[in-house]
Specification:
With 118 residues, this protein is α+β, with helices and mostly antiparallel strands. It contains 2 helices and 6 strands; from the N terminus they run E-E-E-H-E-H-E-E. The chain has one domain (2-115): Holliday junction resolvase RusA (60s Ribosomal Protein L30, Chain: A). It has helices at 30-44, 71-86; strands spanning 2-8, 18-20, 26-28, 55-63, 93-102, 108-115. The longest helix is centred in the middle third of the chain and has 16 residues, at 71-86.
Length: 118
């Protein structure tokens, strides 16, 4: 089984943009939270109980320019959102880098989730 979804570009998509709340707990900025929630809902419809764990998450990057970026920040946010949507621990996810390209007209991410047995 496999899910493929396209997600829009978000320049703040990083765990580095966390902030501490009034009670000492961490929160992500609202645009990052909204992006993660949208991705969670995209994968929530999957029936992961029939899938073999671990799951492979492949990310194709479409960057808006040629600036150097830290891909690990994107992976962390994406895996947290996928794990939340499937109600699994993110330790059950494996990262695979797909394509990396510059696409000024349509920046974003193509995210594929599949079970390892495929």
């Amino acid at each position: 089984m496999q899910l493929i979804t396209r997600m829009p570009w978000n320049k703040d998509l990083s765990v580095n943009h966390s902030r501490m709340g009034p009670k000492g707990n961490w929160h992500l900025k609202r645009p990052v939270e909204a992006w993660m929630e949208r991705l969670s809902w995209e994968v929530k419809a999957l029936n992961v109980l029939n899938w073999g764990l671990p799951l492979i998450v492949t990310v194709d990057f479409r960057f808006p320019d040629k600036r150097k970026r830290d891909d690990h920040n994107y992976y962390k946010v994406i895996c947290d959102a996928v794990a939340a949507g499937l109600d699994i621990d993110d330790k059950d996810l494996r990262i695979s880098t797909g394509t990396v390209e510059v696409n000024r007209e349509n920046p974003g991410f193509t995210i594929s989730v599949e079970d390892e047995s495929k």
